[in-house]
């Protein structure tokens, strides 16, 4: 039986862990902390989807040394949290461990096994000193894209937004390896649709651009996806941002599938969903804006492509993040 660790007990991590634990086809554990850790230990993980609500007991700890080397490790942290967590992640990884790092921004391994002149290129602005590259060697990585709209309504309580959820996975070289097939079958049998994608890099790009466009706009408007869709002109801005980003992909040689309009329509289908950055704003958590901004700058600079709409929206979103942090600090000082 495979050993699977979910490093991070938030909405996505909890969703994965609960489904895997309920199916009982692997030895699953969750690394969490604080109130989330206490809740999982006491009550298990409770998940509400479009069709059901269920609770699954899951082994949870804050000390990865208790778990040892795993077969698969899903790192479901925010991208900006990974670097400082590498020391804690290390006990989970052996020479045969497969790791699935977050892909909200462009991941550090993006150009590993890349079919073009940038093959093997590292991105120092996204991986300081190559720390992630060394701690989690790219050859041990599978790409994964979480098309799972969900939020934690309380510690250990996950609510799915929208009727569909899935996470395609794939080898960076497009291969059909035993490990990717085994994990795809495990996830799918546990109720999480997971197809093997032969071009997972393109899928990572589309999810990145989706987040790059929708999250800053949600941060500025504070609207749900449905409210953003109904407001005149808002989706026009999202479309322009996606188009600018996809122009960079074309220069890099990435084959991007659906046009922006199709991706926008799919996203706003979860009309009641609040983008993760808006959820973080409302909860007073740090915003994942930095990894998105650094990602698009790192790739834009490789090909010197202009992105005026992206630059303008990201600049305003960055100011919103600063003012939100200042307001939270003032509130805490007067509490």
UniProtKB/TrEMBL annotation:
The keyword NADP applies. Its EC number is 1.1.1.169. Keywords: NADP, Oxidoreductase, Pantothenate biosynthesis. It catalyses: (R)-pantoate + NADP(+) = 2-dehydropantoate + NADPH + H(+). Residues 4-101 form the Ketopantoate reductase N-terminal domain. SUPFAM superfamilies: 6-phosphogluconate dehydrogenase C-terminal domain-like, NAD(P)-binding Rossmann-fold domains. Belongs to the ketopantoate reductase family. This is 2-dehydropantoate 2-reductase.
């Amino acid at each position: 039986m495979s050993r699977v660790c979910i490093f991070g007990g938030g909405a996505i991590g909890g969703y994965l862990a609960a489904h895997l634990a309920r199916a009982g086809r692997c030895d699953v554990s969750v690394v969490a902390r604080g109130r989330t850790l206490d809740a999982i230990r006491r009550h298990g993980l409770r998940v509400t989807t479009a069709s059901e609500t269920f609770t699954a007991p899951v082994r949870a700890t804050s000390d990865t040394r208790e778990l040892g080397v795993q077969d698969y490790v899903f790192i479901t942290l925010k991208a900006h949290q990974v670097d400082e967590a590498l020391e804690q992640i290390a006990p989970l990884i052996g020479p045969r461990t497969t790791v699935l790092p977050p892909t909200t921004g462009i991941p550090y391994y993006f150009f590993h096994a890349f079919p073009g002149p940038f093959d093997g290129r590292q991105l120092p602005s996204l991986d300081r000193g190559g720390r992630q590259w060394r701690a989690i060697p790219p050859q041990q990585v599978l790409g994964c894209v979480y098309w799972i709209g969900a939020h934690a309504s309380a510690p250990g309580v996950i609510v799915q937004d929208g009727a569909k959820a899935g996470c395609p996975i794939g080898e960076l070289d497009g291969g059909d390896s035993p490990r990717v097939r085994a994990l795809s079958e495990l996830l799918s049998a546990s109720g999480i649709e997971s197809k093997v994608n032969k071009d997972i890099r393109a899928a990572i790009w589309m999810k990145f651009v989706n987040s790059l466009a929708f999250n800053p706009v949600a941060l500025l408007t504070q609207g749900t996806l449905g409210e953003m869709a109904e407001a005149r002109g808002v989706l026009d801005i999202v479309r322009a941002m996606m188009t600018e980003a996809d122009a960079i992909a074309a220069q890099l040689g990435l084959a991007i599938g659906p046009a922006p309009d199709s991706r926008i329509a799919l996203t706003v289908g979860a009309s009641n969903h609040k983008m993760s950055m808006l959820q973080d704003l409302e909860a007073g958590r740090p915003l994942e804006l930095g990894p998105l901004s650094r990602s698009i700058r790192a790739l834009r600079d490789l090909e010197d492509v202009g992105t005026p709409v992206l630059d303008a929206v990201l600049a305003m979103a960055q100011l919103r993040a600063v003012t939100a942090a200042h307001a939270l600090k003032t509130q805490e000082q007067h509490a």
